[in-house]
Amino acid sequence: MRRFLGFLLALMFMIAPVACAQAESLWVDNSPAANLFNDHRAHAVGDVITIIISESSSASRSGSASNSKSASANLDAGVGVFNFFNAASFGTSDSFKAQGSINNTNKVTGRITVKITEIKPNGQMIISGTQSIKQNGEEQKITITGTIREEDITSDNTVLSSNVAEAQLKIDGKGPIAGKQRQGILTQIFNFLF
User: Which residues does 64 contact at the CB level (< 8 Å), separation at least 6?
Assistant: First the structure.
């Protein structure tokens, strides 16, 4: 009997840790990888999307204008009482000529991640985002806003900037170098007046 009780006691000590252990699944139902067929593209307010900025523009204009006019008059010598007038002639001329040309080329490339701030009833999404880079006292701030369509979002959650409607892209810089590139206040006043 003692042997049997000892055997039962030993068996209980061996089974007790196994009974207390809980089985956990390696599969987590809430993970994004739970269903490989789910669409993981941004689709709700607060979701983030990366905008690939690739914009270039160029403009050129040239013009020329010219204008000229001249006039002349002759006065003969006076006769009789008016003989004190000497023969005289005079003339005027005026000419104007101007030429000018403008060539302007801009290119902006980069990537900026933005948030969906609103979804319109037709499914289009309003996006907005700002990226600020500060280095050596210089700050460059890139801001983009606009409207995108769900079908323009690629599988890696990116949208080309050319697919952003009503896009507003602003690039601002401030710091010592940016300050030196601006005209002084007296120069601005002089240019405004003249």
Answer: 97, 98, 99, 100
Half-sphere exposure (Cβ direction) of 149: Cα atoms closer than 13 Å: 6
DSSP state of 87: P
pLDDT tens, residue order, the chain (194 aa): 667 667 777 767 666 555 455 556 555 555 555 555 566 677 788 889 999 988 777 777 777 777 777 766 665 665 555 565 565 666 667 777 777 777 878 788 889 999 999 999 999 999 999 988 888 878 888 899 999 998 999 888 899 998 999 999 888 877 665 555 566 676 667 666 66
Please give the angle made by the CA atoms of 121, 127 and 131, to the nearest 5 degrees.
170
Number of domains the chain is built from: 1
Report which secondary-structure segment, H or E, holds 158.
strand 158-160
Domain assignment present for 190: no
Tokens of 31: 């993970």
Number of H helices and E strands in the chain, helices first, is 3, 6
Q: Strand 88-119 relative to strand 48-75: parallel, antiparallel, unpaired?
A: antiparallel
Residue 10 located in a structural domain: no
| Domain enclosing residue 73, as ranges | 48-177
Residue 27 lies in a domain: no
In a domain, 148, yes or no: yes
Q: How far is CA 156 from CA 2, 38, 151, 153, in A?
A: 70, 13, 13, 8
